[in-house]
Amino acid sequence: xxxxxxxxxxxxxxxxxxxxxxxxxxxxxxxxxxxxxxxxxxxxxxxxxxxxxxxxxxxxxxxxxxxxxxxxxxxxxxxxxxxxxxxxxxxxxxxxxxxxxxxxxxxxxxxxxxxxxxxxxxxxxxxxxxxxxxxxxxxxxxxxxxxxxxxxxxxxxxxxxxxxxxxxxxxxxxxxxxxxxxxxxxxxxxxxxxxxxxxxxxxxxxxxxxxxxxxxxxxxxxxxxxxxxxxxxxxxxxxxxxxxxxxxxxxxxxxxxxxxxxxxxxxxxxxxxxxxxxxxxxxxxxxxxxxxxxxxxxxxxxxx
Amino acid sequence: xxxxxxxxxxxxxxxxxxxxxxxxxxxxxxxxxxxxxxxxxxxxxxxxxxxxxxxxxxxxxxxxxxxxxxxxxxxxxxxxxxxxxxxxxxxxxxxxxxxxxxxxxxxxxxxxxxxxxxxxxxxxxxxxxxxxxxxxxxxxxxxxxxxxxxxxxxxxxxxxxxxxxxxxxxxxxxxxxxxxxxxxxxxxxxxxxxxxxxxxxxxxxxxxxxxxxxxxxxxxxxxxxxxxxxxxxxxxxxxxxxxxxxxxxxxxxxxxxxxxxxxxxxxxxxxxxxxxxxxxxxxxxxxxxxxxxxxxxxxxxxxxxxxxxxxxxxxxxxxxxxxxxxxxxxxxxxxxxxx
Lengths: 304, 339
Fold this sequence. Notes:
The complex is a heterodimer.
Chain A: H1 2-27, H2 42-51, H3 58-70, H4 85-120, H5 125-139, H6 142-156, H7 168-198, H8 201-208, H9 213-225, H10 227-241, H11 245-250, H12 257-265, H13 269-297
Helix pairs in contact in A: 1-13, 4-5, 4-7, 4-10, 5-7, 6-7, 7-9, 7-10, 8-9, 10-13, 12-13
Chain B: H1 10-15, H2 23-33, H3 35-53, H4 100-136, H5 138-152, H6 156-176, H7 183-217, H8 221-228, H9 233-270, H10 281-289, H11 300-327, H12 329-338
């Protein structure tokens, strides 16, 4: 019941978000046609603005946009004018989804076991080594690791292609660049969560009734310890799936991250709102899923 | 043992007349006893001191006393382009023949400044917002967290770009107006735009995390107990709930400083952050990765700024971890148990 209500609540939330995005990009001085070839005469610009209804009052433009959305039409891109926003998203999204999912799997697949293991061996050398590794990965971000990976594995050793997108072989270096940082963060959150969970009284109870160490760790501590990881992975996944500007720029990958930045620099109004909405739908759905999982894992959390 | 109940092991230690120190003093003592923490704190202090006094090295009283490699001014262009690290340039030179060592020091200074101020902004907003929402619960919680949801659900980069381009355009307008601004004022405006933009987008995770923790704490027995004893809301929140959240806040802070430093470097890369000829570590790395080609590998352009960044972040993280361990209320119980 609670979750049904929250799902219904998403509709006004998305309306607010779309309007906020709509108003925000227009608050920026300058317009989408500023970077056209000069000299564009005032008449040309006026005609352009009229063609895209930019001369109407803001609320009328917004209602027109909403009407289009009802038909699944995100409008034309103001920068790439023979493409619609849906076209561009349709081309970039599969690429960003693939790369993002791979990085997400790397982050969870490396981070959770590492965090669990270091917490279980707390205070001994595997803990120090593992925690140091997790920390190092956080401190050497994609901005640094990406160029280094390219220089060493692609240019020097020639094991991987330098850039571009196509075969799974192309995806390895970008996935590492994107995912390593997150795996370090996940490992730290997981270790922190495990250590906190292991001090709880129900763990003492579980040990007192004679459960084995593995059962205590896996069955009793893990579901509570994974909660911080869980609430972090919702937004992390949304970020990863909509593309990363740094990685896409470094490896020349045709994903959405580049559009996210460039469209707001170019004042490509429809493109910005379309991307904001895409990101918002993804994130809200994931957050809902996270909260649902939260109540399933932690019996102390009750939503009324 | 669960520290949240004032049990037999904790109480005597706290009330022991032979232990006249406040919890904060005891926490500092634990921090100073942690050798890794003290080493990282010293490293951090050394880095900060070095990058602060670095500009003095190229000036007269100190310059003749030092090896020439330490006295290059950061923006002096020379013909010695792409020199690999060596005797005269310890970190090598960049595309304009500028000495990388001095540029890295200057970049680290800007990066740290931006990271610290941005984090302070996000800390204040995030903790207040999250604690109040989680503690009040009900309708307040719903409204406050929906606000966070709305802001959270928009890609932060768009916010930052909108904010910074708007402020820059405003500044351009003032610039062309009758009263011209001094260069110093322009610089401050740019920095403020950057700090504001970074702080305004990075408080949201903090608010969510604090709220979640407070929400799960507010119905615990020790909160009920202090409420039964007549404690007010402010006291319960500040004295009983937030101390249990400090660990999470500090761990998250140690993640926020680096992420703000990174965000800044990302913005500098886009040309929205620190403007040339000034450079932050991020823009140094970015200009290094522009020079990647398949014929010659200028590794030092990325390795040295990257290493400086990693070292700074590593030290920050170690210090943060130790602070967390020291302020953990559970440490009191452990200490009492060891006696």
